[in-house]
Amino acid sequence: MKIIFGIFLVFSLFLVSCKNKPVLGHNSTLSLDSLLLQYPDSVNLLVKHGEQALNNFKYDVAIADAAKAFRLDSSRLDTRILYADAICNNPDRQNADVSKAQYHYRKLISKDPKNVRALVGLANTFSLRQDFDNSFKYINLALKINPKYRNAYILKGSNYRLLGNSKLAISSYETAVQQDPTFYGGYLMLGALYQFEENPICIEYYTTASQLQPKNPDVLYSLAYAKQIYGRENEAKLIYRKMLKLDSTYYEANFQLGYIKQFTDLDLDSALYFYNAALDIEVRHIECYHNIGLIYEDKKDISNALLSYAKVLKYNPEFKLTKERVAVLKKRR
After folding, report:
1. Sign of the C-alpha dihedral computed for residues 267, 254, 184 and 190 taken in this order
2. What's the pLDDT score for residue 26?
3. Which residue, 133, 175, 136, is CA-closest to 154?
4. Which end of the chain is more exposed for a tag (fewer CB within 10 A), N or C?
């Protein structure tokens, strides 16, 4: 009988911008948000706020700040590069956004040929279009100028990963975290690569990332899941519970707690509790419905099993595992 375990390995280029520190020129004892309320047209504040948002992957905020700062003063290099980085790294970017970012990066490089951030940004636009030759070209130009530039190694690693060369991808990401030991994203990417290779050393990298980001549920999820698949379920459960304290809406933590209860602890009623808790948050979570169907099968409650499977097929009529179970149960009738 096939079951649903669930894994969500998400790769990203993690091309966050450098931490520029422009002089505010205002009362810096106030929070940045408070300062912006007082001085909404301060380009320095908008750039600093936008950089902060970009570093925290809040792309909608970063784009809004960058667009306003660039509109107020397009002559400044920091407003242009923030705008280019924000639109280029936005997960919802369109092809036109990549073209626009490429234009701005070229303008920056024409004014400042040794701007490594712009060079790597331009390289990223080529990566997004699968033009890896040009991407590596600009990455290498940046590294000739600054051999310790972290983001160049990140993009190089992501290029190698997309090209299927995990050995060179790992090497590049290792170099990135050597340049910046506080870069938790690098440890996440290394952990994911080792996890894909079924190497339990991934736990060490996820642990380092979680130490750097102890209150980040996404980082904790990677660590908990790795521990779960390598037989350290009790440790995983503690982390999933910690995640739910940090973010009660993180339904994947409930799903994995349900999975452990169902298939490791053999506690079907507790598993049902956690699956239903996940469904209270995300009603379309078909893996929960599938595993609930398996629970009802184990309880010899075929009617409720079929009802649960019907919910899976309502949201995904082609879900293979559920279709197989439905076919088996119908033959028994």
Report:
1. positive
2. 40
3. 175
4. C
CA 40, 43, 44, 47 torsion-angle sign: positive
Report how far residue 170's alpha carbon sits from residue 186's, in angstroms, rounded to the nearest whole number.
Answer: 10
Helix (H, G, I), strand (E, B) or coil at 17: coil
Q: Is 4 helix (H, G, I), strand (E, B) or coil?
A: coil
By the 8 A CB rule, do 54 and 16 touch?
Answer: yes
- Residue 196 region by backbone torsions, left for phi larger than 0, else alpha for psi between -120 and 50, else beta: alpha
Taking the mean position of all CA atoms in its chain, how far away is CA 204?
19
Taking the CA atoms of residue 144, residue 148, residue 152 and residue 156 in that order, the dihedral angle to the nearest 10 degrees is 90
Task: Quote the CA–CA distance of 233 and 33 in Å, as a whole number.
Answer: 41
- Mean pLDDT in order along the chain per 10 residues (333 residues): 43 39 42 86 92 87 92 93 93 94 96 96 96 98 97 96 96 97 94 96 98 96 98 98 97 98 97 98 97 96 96 96 94 76
For residue 3, what pLDDT is reported? 52
pTM for this entry: 0.82
Distance CA 37, CA 46 (A): 11
Distance between CA atoms of 70 and 102, rounded to whole angstroms? Answer: 16
pLDDT computed for residue 117 by the predictor? 96
